[in-house]
Amino acid sequence: KINNIVSTLDFKKHKSIFNPKKDEQVRNTDDYFLTSGREIRYFWEAKAWDENKENLIYPPEVSINKIGHGLHDLDPDFEKVSYDPRVGQICRDLGMDIPLAVQSMYIFKQPHIGGEVIPHQDGAFLYTDPQTCIGFWWPLDKCTKSNGCLWAVPGSHRLGVHRRFRRRDEPYQGTEFVPFEPVEWDLSQAVPLEISQGTLVIIHSASVHYSDENKSELQRHAYSIHVVDGKDGVTYPTDNWLQRPVEYPFRSIPNESSS
What we know:
Helices cover 13% and strands 24% of the residues. Mean pLDDT is 92; it is low at 23-28. The strands form three sheets. Strands 1, 2, 3, 4, 6, 11, 13 and 14 form an eight-stranded mixed beta sheet that branches. The protein has a four-stranded antiparallel beta sheet with strand order 5-12-7-10, with no helix packed on it. Strands 8-9 form a two-stranded antiparallel sheet. It has helices at residues 2-7, 31-34, 71-74, 76-82, 85-93, 122-125; strands at residues 17-18, 40-45, 64-69, 99-107, 117-120, 134-139, 150-152, 164-167, 175-178, 191-192, 201-204, 209-211, 222-229, 251-252.
């Protein structure tokens, strides 16, 4: 399916590069990224380009870092997976009342050039007050340390989320972290999630996780969605980086009893 989607992309239109090794203050602040909440858009691997960022070194189809962030609403096959009642039931079992699918990503983790994803908490990017974000992550290939599997820090979900990635206040453009100073995580107890294809990983909003570069000859594709609670008393701020047009609100995931 993803190959069909990739085949329809116009690779000459955009050079938006996803570089998670850079400080988040300055990455991905263009309109192409900020208006991708209900679109199917592609983002390049940093190492896929020459030094001047003018020409691709590798074929386009093996140079994409990820596709996001509206696959779950715009493609029927990804919609079926994302709104599966079993996903909704898990969300409710974990305490959600109205699980809303806010974002989806197809992550390629390409052979040789698949970039590092620095340690982070999902709740910093898809912030709610109080925190409710849950990530669902499905590997589509076997994950090993050599091809860039996820790593997670046990117990870090108890740390809370104390930093936000947000849109800057007008008249300024782009995004920023608040507070500005980066968090230095203790990764000494991190464990690799070397798992089989199709294993579901559920990620708490405050869990510190990351992945190394893929320097192997094997791809490490994955699909993920992020869900927040839409119940009364939970706020999704208007300055979160991911926003949707008012005519396309976030949709609730059904549970097994309502399907």
